[in-house]
Amino acid sequence: MGFFDLSGSLNRHFGSIGVALNEHAIRLSLTLAEQRTILGPSSHRADKCLTMMCQALNVSDKLAINIESAIPEHVGLGSGTQMSLAIGSALNAFYGLGLTVRDIAALMDRGLRSGIGIGVFEQGGLVVDGGRGEKTITPPVLVHLDIPDTWRFILVLDQRGQGLHGFQEIEAFKTLPAYPRLEAERLCYLLLMQGLPAVAENDIVKFGEVISELQRSVGEHFSDAQGGVFTSPEVAVAMDWFARQGAVAIGQTSWGPTGFCAIDGVALAEALTQKAIKKFSHFDNLSFVTASSRNSGGD
After folding, report:
1. 66: phi > 0 → left, psi -120 to 50 → alpha, else beta; which?
2. Over 70: is that where the pLDDT of 166 sits?
3. Would strands 151-158 and 259-264 be described as parallel, antiparallel, or unpaired?
């Protein structure tokens, strides 16, 4: 859901908030095999993860991995971290290595900026991480809260493109202007004293106000690198419409192009998603998904 301190003025960088979702997840199995085989979606990424992890742990890669489902890549849904942790956890269980999720994340170079992917794999729900300091190995989880059962998130995916990632993402961070310390302080204050209490008190409207404001501020900061507050102009049009329909927590996941918003009420969220599908049927590249929060970690 976004970073809240890009200034690094306290010698800690980033700090972010995010939520685990049920509808986009990696499901795979790992068994012993005579030769290495990987089948299923995102098998190329899984192959890289397996090589990196087996070399780091000095274990055999004569394994068969069957990927039942995978998260779309480079659309802001944390696919890289989740695949790394899923492969690493499967190897950990298979070989009885006794590693923690954080051990695996460090071996796989995850959490170099956001720690949300690690935190939600560990615990699910809503997670706030403390960013990176001089001694950070992986960003520490500072807050974990369960998302209320009736809250739903609507995702707007643009099938045409991908958000910045890899080398492009690294270069974008290098060229961005300095983020104002006072603005980072304001966002932290809003999150601590309004956004997080709103989750604990089941107040989606107040929570949504804080997330929308955080997204507006950070989106404007990233706008030169990604072509606007939203990477996809069509997603931007859809998100403006959702806001006018009463949805809250309007924003973009990471570098996008996926947009998101929140609604309290399962039936209401489903109805609004179906309404959006009809409303934006002329945008062939857009798809809409109603998602629920997963309040437990990976298993």
Report:
1. beta
2. no
3. antiparallel
Q: Write out the DSSP string of 40-78.
A: STTHHHHHHHHHHHHHHHT----EEEEEEE-PPTTSSS-
CATH class of 27-114: alpha beta
pTM: 0.91
Q: How confident is the model at residue 286 (pLDDT cuts 50, 70, 90)?
A: very high
Nearest C-alpha neighbor of 53 from the set 14, 4, 94, 5: 94
- Contacts (Cβ under 8 Å, ≥6 apart) of 68: 27, 28, 29, 40
Query: By C-alpha distance, which of 281, 276, 280 is closest to 263?
Result: 276
How far, in Å, are 173, 178, 264, 276 from residue 222 at the CA level? 9, 11, 29, 27
Letter for the amino acid at 15?
G
The pLDDT score that the predictor gives to residue 222 is 84
Residue 290: its pLDDT value, please? 98
Rounded Cα gap, residues 49 and 113, in angstroms: 19
Q: Which residue has the higher pLDDT, 160 or 214?
A: 214
Q: Give start-end residues of each CATH 3.30.230.10 domain in the chain.
A: 27-114
CATH 3.30.70.890 fits 148-292, yes or no: yes
